TrEMBL record:
It is found in: Membrane. The chain crosses the membrane at residues 6-22, 34-55, 61-83, 95-116, 128-146, 167-187, 193-214, 226-244, 250-271, 283-304. It comes from Oceanobacillus oncorhynchi. It is a multi-pass membrane protein. One of its GO terms (biological process) is transmembrane transport. The keyword Cell inner membrane does not apply. Keywords: Cell membrane, Membrane, Transmembrane, Transmembrane helix, Transport. This is Membrane transport protein. The keyword Kinase does not apply. The lineage of its organism: Bacteria, Bacillati, Bacillota, Bacilli, Bacillales. GO terms for cellular component: membrane. InterPro entries: Mem_transp_PIN-like. Pfam families: Mem_trans.
């Protein structure tokens, strides 16, 4: 337990260090785009390669793909019910931001610190289902309310998945395990060294993106959004945590996965479809802080039980 608390303290320190670098202009927030490309296209895929190598494909692991997709559908339905009477723009933005969560950037460094490589395997499978939600369902919701059209363009939905290096890496390593093919030792050793940079870079990036300025008029919308997001996540997460008590890592993944921050892709969709990108960015920032605190509380609870 002492080691677990120490890891969280170190994580907080690195995030604050990133924020300090931004405030003192050692780094700029725009530098985060470069760091994000390095994380998503180099260090995260390297971590996936090393972690998933010779992974045993089990039913609990595969079930996480389905669980993540079902959770996204339920979260979207909850958002639609709560925001059904809001203005079209606000309704579209709020519902679009409800289903997807930030696994690769936010969860992986914390999960690696708490549960090691086994945790990365479980959250990696959860992220496969989450990617379908983020690039499929969230994209459809954003475009539907922006254009007032129910047309669904499969090409525009599949294209981001096929360009996502982390997603393609997941598919690649799962295929390798199914066919019992092993990567060369030299390649794995190289990936091992590169993957060591994933945790500090991801946490620094979170610090660079922290922003605490927002308008008071946004409070009602943000408050309602946070209540629905975390209310739904906690109720479902705690219920499944007890249901899957015989499979501890599966239970932990569901419990933590359902309260992860809003996906940063939501800001990209907000810009593309002319929603209020500032509100979207503020919500993402607030959920980063709230999720970090909730994960610390829930992970402490799991550690004691």
């Amino acid at each position: 337990m002492e080691g677990f608390q120490q890891q969280f303290i170190i994580s907080v320190f690195i995030i604050l260090l990133g924020y300090f670098f931004k405030r003192t202009k050692i780094l700029k927030e725009s530098d985060g785009q470069t760091i994000a490309r390095i994380v998503f296209n180099i260090t995260l895929p390297a971590l996936v390669l090393v972690t998933f190598n010779q992974m045993e494909i089990t039913l609990p692991l595969v079930s996480l793909i389905v669980i993540a997709i079902l959770f996204g559908l339920v979260a979207a339905a909850a958002g639609f019910f709560v925001f059904r009477s809001a203005d079209t723009d606000l309704k579209g933005m709020a519902i679009m931001m409800m289903p997807g969560v930030n696994v690769g950037l936010f969860a992986f460094p914390l999960v690696e610190a708490i549960w090691g490589r086994e945790g990365i395997q479980y959250f990696g499978m959860f992220d496969v289902g989450n990617a379908v939600i983020v690039f499929g369902l969230c994209f459809f919701i954003a475009s539907y309310f922006a254009n007032g059209s129910s047309k669904f363009y499969l090409r525009e939905t599949v294209s981001p998945l096929l360009r996502s290096i982390p997603f393609l890496t997941y598919m690649f390593v799962v295929a390798l395990n199914i066919f019992d093919f092993h990567l060369p030792t030299f390649l794995l050793d190289t990936a091992e060294i590169i993957s060591g940079a994933n945790m500090p870079l991801s946490l620094l990036l979170l610090g660079l993106y922290l922003n605490f300025s927002f308008e008071k008029s946004w409070f009602p919308l943000i408050g309602k959004y946070l209540a629905v997001k975390y209310g739904t996540g906690l109720v479902l997460g705690l219920s499944l945590f007890w249901l899957f008590s015989d499979y501890p890592m599966l239970a932990n993944t569901v419990l933590i996965g359902f309260i992860l921050p809003t996906s940063t892709t939501a800001v990209v969709y907000a810009i593309r479809y002319r929603y209020n990108a500032k509100i979207a960015g503020t919500i993402v920032n607030i959920t980063i802080i709230l999720s970090f605190l909730l994960i610390w509380v829930l992970a402490s609870f799991v550690a004691y039980h």
